Amino acid sequence: MPSNVIMPQMGESIFEGTITRWLKNVGDRVERDEPLFEISTDKVDSEIPASASGILREILFQEGATVEINTVVAIIDDEGGAIPDSTEAGDAVSPKESEQPPERNLRTEGADPRRGPRSSPLVRRMAQEEGIDLREVEGTGLGGRITKRDILNYLSERERIAEVARPLVQQAQQGLPAAPSVQDEIVPMTAMRRSIAEHMIDSRRTSAHVTTIFEVDMTAIVRLRKENADEFGRREGFKLSLTPFFVKGVADTLKDFPILNASIVGNDIVYKKEINLGVAVALDWGLIVPVIRQAQSKTLVGLAREVADLAHRARQKKLSPDEVGGGTFTLTNPGVFGSLIGTPIINQPQVAILCVGAITKRAVVINDAIAIRSMAYLSLTFDHRLIDGAMADRFLSSLKVRLEGWSDTIA
After folding, report:
1. Which of 28, 230, 388, 408 is catalytic?
2. Catalytic residue among 256, 312, 384, 408
3. Residue 113: its pLDDT value, please?
4. pLDDT tens-digit series, residues 26-54
5. Is 200 inside a domain boundary?
6. Is residue 265 part of a domain?
7. Quick one: 29 exposed, middle or buried, by C-beta within 10 A (0-12, 13-18, 19+)?
8. Is 199 a catalytic residue?
């Protein structure tokens, strides 16, 4: 019997996804739970498994299409019979229905033609604040609805065009030849890259970014890891990295500095009771920040297991949106690529982010004697709207003492 494949809801606050790649072609055999297509939301990229076994008879939305949840995107026929009316799939809607969506699928859209294109009150408010004529924005939502992502994409494109045009105008004013060269390659951003760009620009607009840097002696931790590496690998089945030590150190230090585990809502400060640490993972196609929840209550080994698992599933596109949302503080580690010092952008709505530089052996002075130690730079970027420099330095100083005096064993 033919089965409808629908766009799933990948999180409580997610109402649409962009199809980035079909992993099967029309006519291919598909097994139930086998990856069928990839989607990108504003939180995560994911592989979506087939809901049934059979032959992929029809693909209703091509790569690059942004589709609302519960919309039929493909049809799998296990017997090779006639294709059914896709309205049989409960709340799912067919492409024909999406051209004139029923009221229940529009939510609150303001479809009055006197208001222009379909959009939500949030979208109309954003357009008004940014001076955008909604008639100039291409809607990718159901029935041509203009979504928040469409507005953000429009703003990003407007800024990009302005940035490109600025040097061209200057060159023209100075009588210089125009650029870019005809040999240059122009490639559209991926959905994830656009989402990252929008998030970073929004953070810069929101927070007053300041960075403070401390140097930390990691010799004790490096030695402890080396002494326990082989036994830990045999017991746990994966290598022990240095990242869990930083995660544990940050989680314990945040207990004493709750203002760094907070957020700003209007004129109020929201102190988070749970310490949910985001750990940035570099991917070949972008960056993602899975979250370790209630990190304050977990052991070093427990954190090591979770860091390894989240990083592995992030690279396999197996994370759910819930696993990359709700972070209260973020840790990024460009040191694995050799970077010594970084000044990262705060991951909104958080108020601070810690950057770990490469651990390198250097000659340092200890008790008026020169010694070779494993040293690293820790950079804390914080939101100066809430956190003063003295508080940020006290936090890093406390973390430094904790890391340099590490005495815990690896249980």
Report:
1. 388
2. 384
3. 42
4. 999 999 889 999 888 766 778 899 989 99
5. no
6. yes
7. exposed
8. no
